[in-house]
Write a structure and sequence with these properties.
The protein is mainly alpha-helical. It folds into three domains: 257 residues, Glycosyltransferase; 163 residues, Alpha/alpha barrel (Glycosyltransferase), CATH 1.50.10; 159 residues, Alpha/alpha barrel (Glycosyltransferase), CATH 1.50.10. Helix content is 55%, strand content 1%. Strands 1-2 form a two-stranded antiparallel ribbon. Helix 2 runs antiparallel to helix 3, helix 7 crosses helix 9 and helix 7 packs across helix 11. The longest helix has 21 residues.
C-alpha cells in the first residue's frame, strides 16, 4: 500500500483532542449546547420590511417608545443589508451564499419600504432581478417564484405578498391577482380537514395561512359573494386562533421570516396594534443582533445537543468526556424537552422532540430520532428514560408513511416536502429504533420489526441508480440541483451499518453501493463536497469519513468491502480535515441548507460536531495500517 494512503494516527489524535476540547468548551452554563446560527439576509430583509410596514400603517397609533425601537431596528437592519449585498447586486442567504431569487426579491422589497438613500443599491438589485425574471412587474416575478417552489405556496405566497406590500412592483392595478389567495377561512375548521382537502399549505404554516390569506382578502376580496361572506365571517375567529397559537416568545416556530410575514400582513390589513403584532415585535426585538441582522431561527439547541452527544459517542468513550453528573444533567435536560401534550397548532401527538428548547418549536422526526439516540448514549436507562424513549419510539412509528418512509412533521397528505418521506429522516429513525429495540415494551417490539422492514424497503426504492441517496433538509448550494447526496448517503449508510447483522434486513447490497458512491465522490484534495466534483467542506468530509470508518469497522463477512480503498479514502479524508482545521484550531462553517435546500444557513457548531464524530470514529476503528505521513493533496478521485 502506498504510504500516501496511510492514516497518520498521531496527527489524528492531536486534532481530535483539540476538536473535542472545543466542543466540550462550547456548552452553555446549564450544561447543554446551544450553538449559533449564521446571520441571514432573508431573515433580516423580512424583519426590516415588517418593521417598516408597521411604522407606516401604525403611524400615530403606536406607543412612541415602541415606534422608536422599531425605527432603530429597521435602520440597523437596512444598513446591514446595504453592507452585505453581493457584488452582482443580489442577496444570498448567508455571507458565503451566492444570490438567489427569493432572498434578492425580499431584499429589494425591504430596501424599497425602508427608504433611506438606497437608490444605488436598489438599482443593482433591480438589474439582478430583471436579468433573471425578465422584468420587475408582478407577473414576471410570480412566474419565476412559482417555478422555484412549484405547488407549495408556503414560500411563494409570502414572498409575493411582501413585494406587493412594499410597493416594489411597477404600477399594476391587478398586482394582487398575482398573489395566491390562501384559504385562511379553513383555519377555523377541524384540523382533519387539512388532510382530507390536501391543502397546499401544511398545518405548521397556519400563521402564514391566516395572516397572508387575510391581507390578500383585504386588498382583493373574491368576487364570489358567498365565499366573500364566509371569509369575512371567518376573519375574527382566525385572528383569535392566530393569537392562541402564538408561543410565549412571540415568534412562530422561533423563526424570524414567518413571524415577520405575520406582522407585515396584519399591519397592512388594519391590525397594526393587534396583540399578535405587538408580541411579534417583542420577538424581533429580542432576536435582533448587535450588528443589525437576524438569524433564520433563534437556535437549534436540542438538535446541536443531540448531535454533540452522538459525535462524542462515535469514538466509543462518551464516559471519558462527560462525568456521571454531567451526563445526569444532560439526560434531565433532554427529558424536559420532550412534548407531553398535543401541540397547539400542528396537533402533533405527545412524545416527540423539536429542534429547540424554546416555546416556538414543533416536534419533528429528525429531532425525535436524535433525542432517542442521545438518551441511549447517556444510559443506562432508568425508568423515566425508558418511558420517554417508548413514547418517542411510538411517536415515530405513528409518523411513518404508507411507503415505509419517515416525513418531517406529519404523515403524508400529498407531495409537499414536509409530509414527504425522506431517506435521511428514515435512516435516522431506523437507527433510533434499533437503539431501543430491546428496552421498549413488548407491544412496541413487533411494530418495530414491521416498521423497520418497511423503512429499509423505502431506502431500497429511494436509492439512486448510482448508489446515492438525496436528503430533504440538507443541501449544498454549489451542487447540481442544490442537492447534497454526500449528506444523504452518509446518513443512510451509517444507519445501515447498524442493521447489517440482522437477517430481517437485506441491507448489504444497498450499503455496498452507497459506500462505492462515497468513494467515487471523494475529491482529489482528499475531502468531500455535497456531491461529485463540488468543493470540499469540513461538514461533508467529516460525514463521509465517519461513515466509511464505521462501515470498515462493522463490516460483515457477507459485505463485499475491499479494505484498502476504504482505508486509503479515510486516511486522505482525515488528512484533509487535519489540514483544513489547522490541526483542530480553526473550524470554518459552510452553508449546508435548510427547508428542502432552498434556504441556506450555517451553524457554528456543525464543523466541530462532525469533525469530532469523524476523527473519533476513525481513531477507534480497526485498521491494519498505522502511522505514516499523509499528504493533504495526495490521491485522486476514486
Amino acid at each position: 500500500m502506498n504510504s500516501n494512503t496511510v492514516l497518520d494516527r498521531e496527527k489524528l489524535r492531536h486534532t481530535l483532542a483539540r476538536a473535542t476540547h472545543k466542543l466540550l468548551d462550547s456548552r452553555v452554563p446549564e450544561g447543554h449546547w446551544e450553538g449559533e446560527l449564521s446571520s441571514s439576509a432573508l431573515s433580516t430583509a423580512t424583519a426590516v420590511l415588517a418593521l417598516a410596514l408597521l411604522l407606516r400603517e401604525g403611524e400615530g397609533r403606536l406607543d412612541p417608545g415602541l415606534a422608536a425601537t422599531c425605527r432603530n431596528l429597521m435602520a440597523k437592519g437596512r444598513d446591514w443589508l446595504l453592507e452585505n449585498q453581493n457584488p452582482d447586486g443580489g442577496f444570498g442567504d448567508t455571507a458565503g451564499s451566492p444570490a438567489n431569487l427569493s432572498t434578492t426579491a425580499l431584499g429589494w422589497a425591504a430596501l424599497t419600504a425602508a427608504d433611506g438613500g438606497c437608490d444605488q443599491v436598489l438599482n443593482t438589485t433591480r438589474a439582478w432581478l430583471t436579468a433573471r425574471t425578465g422584468g420587475l412587474d408582478a407577473g414576471a416575478l410570480a412566474t419565476a417564484i412559482t417555478a422555484r417552489y412549484g405547488d407549495d405556496r408556503t414560500f411563494s405566497a409570502p414572498i409575493l405578498t411582501a413585494c406587493t406590500l412594499a410597493g416594489a412592483f411597477e404600477p399594476d392595478k391587478g398586482v394582487w391577482s398575482r398573489v395566491p389567495q390562501l384559504p385562511f377561512e379553513l383555519a377555523v375548521c377541524p384540523p382533519q380537514w387539512f388532510k382530507w382537502l390536501r391543502l397546499p399549505v401544511v398545518s405548521y404554516a397556519l400563521p402564514a395561512l391566516i395572516a397572508i390569506g387575510q391581507v390578500r382578502h383585504h386588498f382583493r376580496p373574491t368576487r364570489n359573494p358567498l365565499l366573500r361572506l364566509i371569509r369575512s365571517l371567518a376573519r375574527p375567529r382566525s385572528l383569535e386562533l392566530l393569537q392562541t397559537i402564538q408561543p410565549a416568545s412571540g415568534g412562530y416556530l422561533e423563526a424570524v421570516p414567518l413571524t415577520s410575514f405575520v406582522i407585515m400582513s396584519l399591519a397592512a390589513s388594519g391590525q397594526a396594534c393587534h396583540p399578535v403584532v405587538l408580541r411579534g415585535v417583542d420577538f424581533l426585538t429580542a432576536t435582533a443582533r448587535g450588528d443589525g441582522s437576524w438569524p433564520i431561527d433563534t437556535n437549534l439547541a436540542t438538535w446541536v445537543t443531540t448531535q454533540s452527544l452522538a459525535s462524542l459517542a462515535a469514538g466509543g468513550d462518551l464516559e471519558s468526556h462527560l462525568d456521571v453528573e454531567e451526563r445526569r444533567i444532560l439526560r434531565r435536560w433532554l427529558l424536559d424537552q420532550q412534548y407531553h401534550s398535543l401541540h397547539p397548532y400542528t396537533h402533533a401527538e405527545p412524545g416527540g422532540w423539536a429542534w429547540t428548547d424554546l416555546p416556538g418549536g414543533v416536534p419533528d422526526a429528525d429531532d425525535t430520532a436524535g433525542a432517542l439516540l442521545a438518551l441511549s448514549y447517556l444510559g443506562p436507562g432508568d425508568v423515566e428514560s425508558i418511558q420517554a424513549a417508548s413514547a418517542g419510539v411510538q411517536w415515530l412509528l405513528d409518523l411513518q408513511n404508507s411507503d415505509g418512509g419517515i416525513p418531517t412533521f406529519c404523515r403524508g397528505w400529498g407531495r409537499l416536502p414536509f409530509d414527504r418521506s425522506s431517506p435521511d429522516l428514515t435512516a435516522h429513525a431506523l437507527l433510533a429504533w434499533s437503539s431501543w429495540q430491546q428496552a421498549v415494551p413488548l407491544r412496541l417490539r413487533s411494530r418495530l420489526q414491521s416498521a423497520g422492514r418497511r423503512g429499509v424497503n423505502f431506502l431500497s426504492v429511494s436509492q439512486r441508480e448510482d448508489g446515492a441517496w438525496v436528503p430533504l433538509w440538507f443541501g449544498n448550494q454549489a451542487a447540481r440541483g442544490e442537492e447534497n447526496p454526500t449528506y444523504g448517503t452518509a446518513r443512510v449508510v451509517l444507519a445501515l451499518n447498524r442493521l447489517s447483522d440482522d437477517g430481517d434486513f437485506p441491507v448489504e447490497g444497498m450499503r455496498s453501493r452507497g459506500i462505492d458512491w462515497l468513494l467515487a465522490a471523494q475529491n482529489a484534495d482528499g475531502g468531500w463536497g455535497g456531491s461529485v466534483g463540488v468543493k470540499s467542506t469540513i461538514e461533508e468530509t467529516a460525514l463521509a469519513v465517519q461513515t466509511l470508518a464505521d462501515a470498515l469497522d462493522v463490516a460483515s463477512p457477507s459485505l463485499d468491502l475491499t479494505r484498502s480503498p476504504v482505508e486509503a479514502a479515510i486516511a486522505k479524508g482525515v488528512s484533509w480535515l487535519v489540514a483544513d482545521t489547522r490541526g483542530g484550531r480553526d473550524f470554518k462553517p459552510s452553508p449546508i441548507g435548510l427547508y428542502f435546500s432552498k434556504l441556506w444557513y450555517f451553524e457554528r457548531q456543525y464543523p466541530v460536531i462532525f469533525s469530532v464524530a469523524a476523527l473519533g470514529r476513525a481513531a477507534s476503528a480497526d485498521y491494519r495500517c498505522t502511522p505514516s505521513n499523509t499528504s493533504a493533496g495526495g490521491g485522486g478521485n476514486r
